[in-house]
Every structure is written in structure tokens, then in C-alpha cells.
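User: Study the chain.
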Amino acid sequence: MLDASALLFLENQLCFPLYASSRLTTKLYAPYLNKLDITYPQYLVFLVLWKHQKQSVKEIGERLFLDSNTLTPMLKRLEQKSLIERNRSTEDERTVLISLTKEGELLKEKAKEIPKNILESFQGSSISEIEMNDLKNTLTKLLVLLEQKTTAIKDSTSSEIE
């Protein structure tokens, strides 16, 4: 067990390699996404829409772990580029539904090579494809756990305010 002061060393933090890996992963995707004129968070929105077609803003936010105040401006920019459409639900006008335009669908064809290119960029490195898949599975478990913990914190904080 580390002493209390050693716990505050950068190399002993779980958060730092996650944060740095996330930033560097985004940089790795940048050259491919720049060709499509989209950002990494916008790419994530497209991944959701290419799989699930029409989604509410709330559903997209839940899938991407993003709040609507983060998502809404991004969706507006994609709408301005004519890549998505935002429409009010006929069943509940408080719900905004997001769907791809023809241009947004065509972007899928251009993006198909991105995952393959990213995986190929790791060939010959010290991490194997199996290790990458294991890491992804572990990170997915961590993501679920962190979502539960942050929801519990948010719930306890809001009940303290009341």
C-alpha cells in the first residue's frame, strides 16, 4: 500500500492515463475526421445514428454519456452543415428527434475505412489486437461503473439541495 503522499503522484492516478489516452486517441482520429470536416464528438454522434437511425437528443446523450447542453450546440452545427435533421416528435413535442440527411448517410461510406486505419496504425506495436479488445471490454465495464457512481453522486447531491 502506498503512503498518503505517494497517492498524489501523477503515476499513481487512474484518472491520468484515462485522460491522456482519451486526448491522444482523439488526436489519432483527427486526420481522418478532418477529411470529413467533422470533429471527434460529431463522429460519435454519427456512429450512433448510422446504427440506430432516428434518435432523440436524450437517447443520443445517454449512449454517448453527454448532457443535452453539450449535445445541442453540436447537433445544431451538424444541421447547419446539412448532415442531420432535427424535428420535434409528433407524439411529444418536447422531444427532438435527430435523423441523418442524405449527405449524412453518404458520410458513412467515406468513414468506413476509419476503424480499419486506426487498428492498422497499431500493427507492429507492443499491444496486440487481442489486448486492444480486452482493454476495450475493461474500459466498457469501467464506463458502466463510473456512470453508476456519478449518477449516485448526482442523486445524493440533488437530494441534499432539496
Observations:
- The chain is about 65% helix and 5% strand.
- Residues 122-162 form one domain.
- The first strand starts at residue 55 and ends at 56.
